[in-house]
Amino acid sequence: MTDKPTNEYPLLPLRRGVLLPGTVSTLPVGRPRSLALVAAVNAGDIIVIASQREPETEKPTIADLHPVGVLARVHRIGRSNDGSARLVVETRERVNLEQVLQSDPHMRVSTSPAPDKSADSTEAKILAESLREHVRELAGTDGGNLVEAVAKRLEPGALADAIGSHLPLERRAEVEVLMTLDVPERLRLVARFVNEAHEMHSIRQKIDEEVRKRLGKHQREAILRERVKAIQTELGDDDENGEADKLTEKLAAAELPEEVQKVVDRELKRLTKLNPAHPEFNVARTYLDTIADLPWSTRAEVKDDLDEVSAQLDADHFGLDDVKQRILEHMAVLKLSGGSKGTILCLAGPPGVGKTSLGRSIAEATGRPFVRIALGGVRDEAEVRGHRRTYVGAIPGRIINAMRKAKVKNPVMLLDEVDKLSQGWSGSPEAALLELLDPEQNHTFTDHYLELPFDMSEVMFVVTANDLSKMSPPLRDRLDIVEINGYTPEEKLNIAKGHLIPRKLEENALGPDTLEIDDLALRHMITDYTREAGVRQLGRELGKLSRAVALQVARRKGDEPTEPVRIAVEDLDEYLGKQRFYNEVAERTAVPGVATGLAWTPVGGDILFIETSQMPGKGALKITGQLGDVMKESAHAALSYVRSNAASIGVEPDFLDTRDIHIHVPAGAVPKDGPSAGVTIFTALTSLLSGRRVRSDTAMTGECTLRGRVLPVGGIKAKVLAAHRAGITRVILPHRNARDLDDVPEEVRSQLEFVLAEDMGEVLDAALEHEPRPSQSQLGLSIIDELDSSAPLS
């Protein structure tokens, strides 16, 4: 290239960085025009190097370059397998870029000299010596590169370039040094940059010392994060990080109460000061996320059209008039008052009567979101009220989580199976519900995780339970209890036709016209294949029938007619198997000493047989059947009353002198207790000793005193419905339970005869046949041996 004019050179544009005169640098080359330049030059050639104004420009023109560049001698050229290259160059004097002589395959420009100004002036020499001494003073803290630069006896302009090339300058500052041709001005500029670099070095040392004190030997990544934070603090830049910004926006939209807002502001301030790698950072962020997700002020729009609500409830459930009436009353109060106060409704009854589904139906009818909390088996208080944040992995309780899911503060919340709560070593979960289910307190319900009052007063609570006796009195006192004691056969028939059969057909992929069951067959299924208070078992039997029909439909050929499958009474044995329940009352009471009682159980009412037997002995009383203490005491009281009134009821006064009495309640594997069997035990003993049989169409319940008074008992509706299901037509009840008959459906009351007794004499007159059977009384035959002990307890 020596034959070319000396002011024309190939041009290598730099995307980033600036080269000052007097340096040796290695430059990576990758752009096509730059690679073409590398191919055209050899080691020892002179090129011009200039910096681009914008690094993004791919094919720069002379207008895209700074007007001053540097001449550089190529020392070495290296090429890579990927096509890129590397140039080792030594920069010389500054030149002005004049014009582009060639653009392709590489750029070539003409230049003019750009000499230093006032380089030999006294001012320049004094400034150079001052700068040299200043750099030597700072050499102990800034390292050895600058010491090497000032150790050489360089001219003032070259000294400024050498020091500037060793300073950690920004690109803007490097360009400023390159463009300054006046040497004294360049020395002053470099001196200012040296002072700034020294100040930054001092600040960095101070920050490093603070970080070391705080973190000790933590890993480098954590140190770098702390250094960034310390730099922000030193510069006064303490803006919240991205996480805090997002949380702040989310919390601002939540419209928090004043008390909650104070806690949130404190936690947000703490969060911004925490290192994201610190364990407390995630704890604080999760806590604030939980607060932001809660519906502090969001409400669902509640339907106030009572007719529409009533129609929805009737469409979803047949019967249950008491519950529907209570819901409509609640909605009427809300409509008239214009308020949003919640209510606490407890649906108590046996399984399968629709308690849980009724809660969902209430939510749909009122237009509120529905959330269900299953409490069966919960034994830890923290599951209800949450864990305190002092514990690792602490979370809110089920109540607060349900509110997060509902997203409104007035949902329908179903607390399912509340009587199945158990108590563990960590506290009673039932006690944790006392505040929640108290209308006077739940506006400030406090979860242990939040430790903030949350208003639950607008929630409509629906509590379900099978056995209210298993709940503590304080909890029962807080509930508006509506008892669902079961369905009558007629109600079951309507439920099966309107709800169960369509549902089972849909579950088994059958069309609505695929199956036809006549009413007589349905009644037969209700009485002979199921004997329950609810309709769950009836649903299972209908599902079994639907699956059998589905098999028939699936086996049909394509040309066979698609007529519906019709089910009559005589077809039930084929589809459902043998009949499961029989009317065994007449069979069991065919001999003296057996009486039919009525019992209440958590799964509904049931009939209970009391069997007695006498045998030669010396007056011993044996009681079997896994009976509780109260029931055993009822048996002793009944025997004492029989002995004290033996003459008036037709029994030998000294019957215990030569006989032993055995009282047995079948289904011995089932625990039984309560005072309501006293009347039945007394009647069975009198029947045994007098030889008068108990009427087979009669069942009874009531507590018996030693004086023969008949005291009232509970569960009358459930017991009467059980008697009706078992085919009983006469029921003996305590006189003071007469008011409870109003709860019994009219269709059941019309089919039963009720005898209201105040003392045992009235019970015996109504329950026993008038003609005795002396042969049984005298011989003392064992009644138990004559009974079919294998028959199931009804």
From TrEMBL:
Protein name: Lon protease
Natural source organism: Enhygromyxa salina
Keywords: ATP-binding, Cytoplasm, Hydrolase, Nucleotide-binding, Protease, Serine protease, Stress response
GO biological process assignments: cellular response to heat; protein quality control for misfolded or incompletely synthesized proteins
Enzyme class of the recorded protein, top EC level: hydrolase
Phylogenetic lineage: Bacteria, Pseudomonadati, Myxococcota, Polyangia, Nannocystales
Similarity comment: family membership: Belongs to the peptidase S16 family.
Complexes and interactors: Homohexamer. Organized in a ring with a central cavity.
Keyword match Protease: yes
EC number: 3.4.21.53
Domain Lon proteolytic per the UniProt entry, residue ranges: 589-770
HAMAP family reported in the protein's UniProt record: lon_bact
